[in-house]
Amino acid sequence: MNIQLRTPVLWLFLLLLGSCIDPFQPEVVERPNNYLVVDGYINSGGELTTFRLSRTQNLTEKGEPAAESGATVVVEEEGGAGYALPELTAGVYAARLQSLNPERQYRLYIKTTNGREYASDFVPATPTPQIDEVAWQAESDGLLITVSTHDDQNNTGYYRWEYEETWEFTAAEKATVEIVNGQVRDITPESENIYTCWRTEPSTTIRLGTTTKNASDILRNFPVHKIASDSDKLRIGYSILVRQFAQTRAAYEYWENLKRNTEDIGSLFDPLPSQLTGNIQSLSEPDELVIGFVSANSATEKRMFVSKSELPKNWQAPRLLCVADSTNLPVNGAVEKMKNEKYYVLKKRILGEGNVLLGYQAKFRGCVDCREYGTNVRPEFWPQ
Amino acid sequence: MRQFYRGILLLLLTAISCLPHAFAQEAKQPPVSVSLNQQPFPEFVRAVEAATDYRFFYNPAYLDSLTVTVQVKDKPLETVLEQVLGNTAFKFAIDAQNKVYITKGKQIQVNLPEGFFEIQTGTTEKRPVLASDFMPADVGSRRRASSELKLYEVGVRSAKAAGKATLSGRLHNAATGEPVIGVSVYLESPMIGTVSDQDGFYTLSLPVGRHQLIIKGMGMQATKRQILLHSDGKLDIALEEDARMLKEVLVEADKDKNVTGLQMGVEKLDIRTIKQVPTAFGESDILRVVLTLPGVKSVGEGSTGMNVRGGSTDQNLILFNGATIYNPSHLFGFFSAFNPDIVQSAELFKSAIPARYGGRLASVLEIKTREGNKKKLAGAGGIGLLTSRLTLEGPIVSDKTSFIIGGRSTYSNWLLRQLPSDSFNSSTASFYDVNAHISHEIDEKNSLSVTGYTSKDAFRLSADTLYRFSNHNASVKWNRTFDEKLFGEFTGAFSHYGYGITSNKNPENAFELDFGMNQGNVQADFTYFPNPKRTINFGINSILYSVSPGSFMPNSPESLVAPDKLQNEKALETAIYLSEKFDLTDRLSVEAGLRYSLYNALGPRRVLSYATDAPRTETTVQDTAYYKAGDPFATYHGPEYRLSARYGLSDNSSVKLSYNRLRQYIHMLSNTVSMSPTDVWKLSDSNIRPQVGNQVALGYYQNFRANTLELSVEGYYKTMRDFLDYKSGASLFMNHHIETDVVNAQGKAYGAEVMLKKLSGRLNGWISYTYSRTLIRVNTSATAEVINNGAYYPSNFDKPHDFTLISNYQFSKRISTSFNFTYSTGRPITLPIARYQYGNSQRVLYSDRNAYRVPDYYRADIAINLEGNHRIQKLAHSSWTLAVYNLTGRKNPYSVFFKAEEGEIRGYQLSIFGQPIPTLTYNFKF
């Protein structure tokens, strides 16, 4: 807290409020650490089972965590067969397993290149009920996405959801010219679309729900996500794919703790951080910490679409503004200059009196080319 | 001693050399006028000698340090000297030639006994010893009328003058009429003694016959009474107050109580001690001083929650004149809730807790207020940087009824508004508290006192959410002396604690959250002295609790908040106790006590019951039962043992042992590291069992150098069970089934405390070193979650090493300085140790709970206290205190937190006082 000590009164009061906050790097935090992280679940419904193996990083380290390559990853049935998961890309092991027997238990077995062996607890393969409906409600401050589901057998009780949001958006500014075959020409409907794009993002927050409080295993309009009314996502059209997983109680608690731990801790009245215990152990070194919780379940999913016209009229995303640099190019040499240009794209002609072409304006790519933030390929599911 | 004799010899020689004149002249004694304020004695001598023909003879080595304040006009020197020397060990004698002899201890005989010269002529200087032979023991002619020498006959004279009789009475301040508390009344031989109780009463059982009763205590001039005890009887004693405001005794206790008392693990702080210790905001703070005692710790600065010998913050019973205080702090704990001008003493019991107290596992902190001045209207106050306070006291009915009322408030709101920053401008922080106490002496055998206390805090951090909390307490005490052997005290008290949070940030979310609890208790305590070797305490007390654990209500018409209210809780706790103290031999004494407590949780209540073998969750609810108002639905009861024993190894050393069991039926739920005003108090019920704690303590005590140096070494081992810890990330906010979010924890604590106290002299204070551990384990099958694999882990306040120095040096009667130094191991924390990618997001991995520590804590404080002059007749006595808190500006981390910034996770430490904090306080008394 760097406040100029200007008045004596302030100085006096700083005694009360002017506590100091200083950087704190205990040795343990800087010590390199290298625990195995197992992220994924066994898909018992015959869809792709994917596990991502990586290593933890030092807190101060930047960049992506190191992938754990070259490991042997096997899904094992208790007292039965094993299904190997081949490595697709570095650290990503995946395979489509045949439908697993809900009466049996399964576990994940891993052997890393350094010869260490790990295994999860045996977990039951829980079938996930279908999603009855993904709906939306316009609330005063945003769009609430809800899920309805039920289990006639009253077996599920614990649910977890992931989702994938896709929304349509445009670049901030529309280019009127483009370079095709070394020639500057007007953009036409046949030109490659760089103005309208779609962006897809996975959920980063953990969404959990339980019906154990309810008389029966039914969830009706359970909120899974909320989008602020002024969000960019609601500018044109918005779609969400909700994926549902039935969880065991242990898995549910693991995710719940993980969720709570993601919050900030440490100020005066904040709760203590909680401890997380997964279900994966090292077979070679029992004390070794392994991060992750393996569960086996099927997945069900449902998509929902909402367009701008269905939303309240007063919901306005802020005007798109692109204040980034622009640069002017002479008529001759503009094409040459743009050939290997990474940051700028040609945007429009600069015309003088009597529509004399004086040159071209080039603008920061992010302002003009929506592909910087998404794809211009219309998703299959996107309504026409 | 050699010097003493040399002095006597010198004086004697002088006297003898003048003898012929002494017989020849009949000098008249001229009157003296002198006005001196806080001058050394030689100054006084110079002034008198300059104005009159008196000549003084004395040993400067003794009298240089004596300061004199005197204001007389045309008084005989004898009177003046009585005034000047009356309270000291010095005696004076004036001979016929107006020569004045000042001696220490024994008075010079200016008239030689008859026949002296026949025996001694010319040989005096060779036989100086004789001089003392002729000084009569303890007969000061000028004090003949004083009550110290009068022989008081107590009881009815009867023929059979044998056996023992009980002497009782009350000590009171001769000037104000207030009872004098904690003063020793004893015989030197045989060594029989006691200490006056909280109402000034004392009782002694003595052999019938003649005794010299010695009365000594802090802040009072020592005195004695000659008594002739015939049978049971009464003797009230008036004591003179020591005129100096700051006396050089730190921790109150009779000098040898450390060794001879049966009690162990007790620390009694007098308000004078409390006032000597520098604090952050210049105001004397009882709880801050309590925190410097060995075995008492806190999580960090800015929290008044204290942890006594490994107990959690809710395991301390804080009594304010018999009423329970639930939140003893103001302004996030920067101030304690007790006005220092009202407080008389604070007594902390940490190992052998007397049977009359119960209901908390770790300690009892009993705070007592003063009685108002019974003679005249007086006041006191202080002006500090953040707070000011004022106290008034005086008689309602002279000598019978008095009042004292004190108030305190802060001007921090005004200060906040002066700040240029908006976030400070819109913040508020304020508090006030008011204490009132009336004491009334009905007759010799009955006295009554009424205390009221109310406090309120409100703070708003950045314009949005307002937090407020308040304490309201009232208590009535009636003391009755049934006869010389049986005393009774009847107490009724009411306590309320409540808090609220109001948010008006936007109308849709505006809410008001309220918590409140009330406690009413009645108790009767009796003390019976059947014979001199036995003391019996017995009594009964009953507490009715009523808690409104929370209501969450919309706070504006547009608010979308759904009203929610947790069901109220009610319970009745009743306990009876009996304890007896008896001396087995001269060296061995034992106190054994039993307290039996019975607890009933009362309806109306909706009670969930859970499957017994499965973890408690909403899913394992098996049944819901409804109980009508007043129906007991859960009952717990159990014995609480109290045992202590003392064995005297010698006159100066002893060994003590104690064992305690305590039960606690009320729990504080908090999952923040410090005590915060929004913690929830929860009563035991069918799903929450009471906490039980056991403690064994062993101590060795020795006094050195005529009881001026006290050494105590205490070790303890403690177990606790069924106190509440929280499931990771438990939600305590408006939780309708809190039992699913808490786990029963087991704890053990052990440690050793070494303390060396120096009670008198220019330099006084204490040094203590504590080694202690507090470990917790959560390992019950009833929880899905096992913390740290079910192994013991350090609690939040486990700080193994602790060193404290509290010192005070008196340069003169008016200038003193205090210096404190504290070192302790940093408190444990749970650190994030790594980050990883999981579930599409960056996650942080935490270490085992409390596996690491924040850096060590140390702090040095200094204070200089300047007293005004000590003239007794003065409009107001005043003093200035200049203090610097955290002298070295050490940034002691209070908490550590981590934030994701620019793609990396950075750690920060928050220090509450990161720089030296100077304060200036003006105190006055009139």
Attribute tags:
heterodimer, A: 384 residues, mainly beta, eight-stranded mixed β-sheet, five-stranded mixed β-sheet, 5 helices, 27 strands, disordered N terminus, B: 926 residues, Phage tail protein beta-alpha-beta fold, Immunoglobulin-like, Maltoporin, Chain A, 22-stranded antiparallel β-barrel, 57 strands, globular
Short description:
Chain A is mainly beta and 384 residues long. Chain A contains 5 helices and 27 strands.
Low-confidence stretches of chain A: 1-18, 264-270
The whole-number mean of residue pLDDT values of chain A reads 84
Helix content bin of chain B: under 10%
- Can you tell me the CATH architecture of the largest domain in chain B? Beta Barrel
Largest sheet of chain A: 8 strands, mixed
Shape of chain B: globular
Structural class of chain A: mainly beta
* Residue share in helix of chain A: under 10%
Query: What is the radius of gyration of chain A computed over CA atoms, rounded to a whole number of angstroms?
Result: 27 Å
Assembly state here?
A: heterodimer
